[in-house]
Amino acid sequence: MKWSPEVYKEVWNALSAKGNLNACKSCYASNGFDLIPGFFMQMIIQDPTSPPVPGEPVQAIPTVVTVCVNCGQLTQYAMGQVLGVHFSEEAVRVGTTQ
Ligand SMILES: [Zn+2]
Questions:
Q1: Domain ranges of the chain
Q2: What is the pLDDT of residues 25-68, one digit of tens each?
Q3: How much is the pLDDT for 81?
Q4: Cα–Cα distance measured from residue 85 to residue 1, given in angstroms and rounded to the nearest whole number
């Protein structure tokens, strides 16, 4: 899945349907949110003292992030729960564009 205006709308609608855009969990304001236009990848590593080697695969969780327009709180949502898109079986390569 590649980020596009259609994916933006799909993610936004899914977050809205689940009530994630109702009020900020930090400041409780309901001024609204911005959705960062793209995916974030949270790498999963077993040993923080041994960072991933560039070019080698690591598992990662794709997420989307909203920003509260009132306080700036960043909130991260796993794509699997937002859109039912699971990448847990896949790996990303650190330091490459693939
Ligand atoms: Zn807030």
A1: 5-47+58-85
A2: 999 998 899 999 999 988 888 888 988 888 888 888 889 999 99
A3: 75
A4: 9
Backbone torsions φ then ψ of 5, nearest 5 degrees? -60, -35
37 Cβ neighbours under 8 A, 6+ residues apart: 3, 8
Q: Compute, in angstroms, the gap from residue 16 CA to the centroid of ligand 1.
A: 16
Distance 2 CA to ligand 1 centre (A): 28
Instruction: Quickly state the pLDDT bin for 20 (edges 50, 70, 90).
Output: very high
Burial class of residue 80 in the structure, from the number of CB atoms within 10 Å of its CB (0-12 exposed, 13-18 middle, 19+ buried): middle
Expressed in angstroms and rounded, the spacing between residue 13 Cα and the centre of ligand 1 is 20
In degrees to the nearest 10, what's the CA dihedral of 54, 82, 77, 9?
Answer: 90
Q: Is 17 exposed, middle or buried (0-12, 13-18, 19+ CB in 10 A)?
A: exposed
Q: What is the pTM of this model?
A: 0.78
